[in-house]
Input
Amino acid sequence: MSADLYRDVDEQRANTSAMRAFMGFCANRTQLKFDGYAQLQQWAIRDSAEFWKLFLEWSRLPVSGSPDPTVTSSDCEHAQFFPNVRLNYARCLLRSFDAEAENREAVVGVREDGNRAALTRAELRAAVERFAAGLRSLGVKPGDRVVAVVRNTPEAIVACLAVAAIGAMWSSVAPDIGDAAALGRFSQLDPVVLITHGEYIVHGVRKSLRERAELLAKELRTVTTLVALDERPDIASLSLETRVRVVLRKELEGYGALPMSEWDEFPFNQPLFVLFSSGTTGAPKCLMHGAGGSLIEHHKEHVLHSSFGSGEKLYFHTSAGWMMWNWQLSALACDTQIVVFDGSPTFPVQDALLRMLDREQVTIFGTSATYLHALQQLGLSPASVAPFEKLHTLQSTGSILYDAQYDWIASEFKHLEVHSISGGTDIVGCFVLGNPLLQTYRGESQCVSLGMDVRVMTGQGVQRHGEGELVCMNPFPSRPVGIYGDSNGDRFHKTYFAENPGMWTHGDQVRLLERGSARILGRSDGTLNVRGVRIGPAEIYSVVLSVPGVVQAMAVEQQAPREPGGSRLVLLLVLQEGVVLDRGLTLRIKKELNQKGSPNHVPAVIVQVPGLPATHSGKYSEKAVRDLLNGKPLTNRGAMRNPETLDAIGAHPELQPLA
Amino acid sequence: MSLALRQRVVDWLDDNYHFGDTEALLAGDDEKSFLRNGILDSLGFVKLMLFLEDTFTVRIDRKDVRPENFDSLGKIVRYISVLPGYREPA
Output
């Protein structure tokens, strides 16, 4: 047995898994023999169109039209899946399974103060039908953008599904995002409706969203209606321009119902979700994800890789501003119950979230390596909190789940199945994840997602195994259908396909192992990952460079094993001659980043440096600084026009490698 | 109460969470609950604990990281200043 084996295959679970059933279905239909996942994967990549066609058929998702052609070409950048299939995403999630499922809680909302609200599948559907009727009465049409500032609650799910039901597009952020960041995102979308909660709660403290709502309603010039999701009178009484009408949720739901049977079907590639991806330059990109592509990818990940289904109860720790919120939503399509939590995981007691998991009898717990690390740092042993009798699987994403954390989970939590899953906003899904048919090795994702030809770009070109940049060679349905406002596709091409033409370049470093597993190593581009939250340096620069005295800025991630999440954000500044980075200026910069960005945009360390390294073409090199701060060999020093800046940065006492 | 220790904790709160507004948030009440008043977030206690260990050369028993010892400025100062190995900051 390999020393790094965390957990062997549970043969009973493997034999009854959907992955095995699907393998049998494919073997039967293709007359091929699959001895295991590796062979199934080889076929799914080799005959990708047949694989996706069979999966759609096997899934029994309620779609119409012809599955032919399954995919329009083999070109990863431009291929379209199922151009002749139509569906309604919300109907796929809210369809009726059986009488028992109708009356079982489908969505459970738990607040940090212990308040609990649940909707059965029938109740959830009825609520969506009412909300959809209201939206339609407001004149919302297919393709319109609806934006939302919402907490992680059942009513936010109802609103999102109602938007999907009428074929509009949904884009949400969490309430803790700053005004500038929210505006920078939503203003690109020309939305017609703004949905907002009136307040949010942090550690028992209620914070009003009135000013945020007022600002967004004023600045988003295309918005004609503001829907207040809760009964806060200060939102209802907002005095806005005549252009914007304020509607309470109760009023909206007073327009009757738009029954599910009357929901139209829309093209498979109709944009549904808009997620935001921020890079090192420019405004955040508005990634449009298609309804069908999102659904079929999520369904594959949920049912095949994660063994979701009837009787399972999922809690994934997320906010409405992260793609995992959209991801967990789709679990309704396989009759898995969803628990959403509104508040802080450690309030009013440090083990509050753990107690909730046990109380709700959650079976699958999705979290971040950062949260697990924080528990470990606190010396908090979940096993001492509750028995977690129903819990069998832990999914972790957002940042790297290190080898030792697997052992901590087994000894201090429970010997759970551990799925280290990774992908992201860009694909609203995963490239690597779990698998009931495979062993689990510490620090590794069990496999590459079925049907995705994921490889590594190394110094020797594209390889099946080894370490390098993660690329995907073949088309996949959850590739964004485009970037909103990028009518000729230039920005989309530049972001994902310019570096390696013909293949999706994701921006992650990965090690693909011969046994089929994968280990994500971190970002390969300048994007930051702070406590599991992805941050685009461009958003930091736009704030910092507006502070008087700041001339240049560079934000990089530095490995810091003692920090929650294992890394910290470092900001380097070049200041005007005569300006010194004193405590007052440091605090002012942090405050601005907190207010205009979010708490995650605030660096742990800010230092003044004489200059920043730039290439001969004038592009600043985050990579060079990141390597330096993390004790890695500098591979591109020769490409710098001012390598002496690296010497000054390397000698700075606050910038020494910590790992 | 050790004023130097108190100031270091206030500085830390300013550096990491309130950016110059900590004293205003406390409003002269060093016993104000951090949790109930939103002065520390979920990860705050972990980060504060690590800072205190590194800065004051003390070892904090993880079982002690609970509101009784950490939920206000006064509680932190009283708890830390009697730990073995504690050295008054310069």
Remarks:
- Chain B touches chain A at residues 14-17, 19-21, 35-38, 40-43, 45-47, 49-50, 61-63, 65-67 (CB under 8 Å).
- The longest helix of chain B spans residues 3-18.
- Residues 49 and 61 of chain B are 10 Å apart (CA to CA).
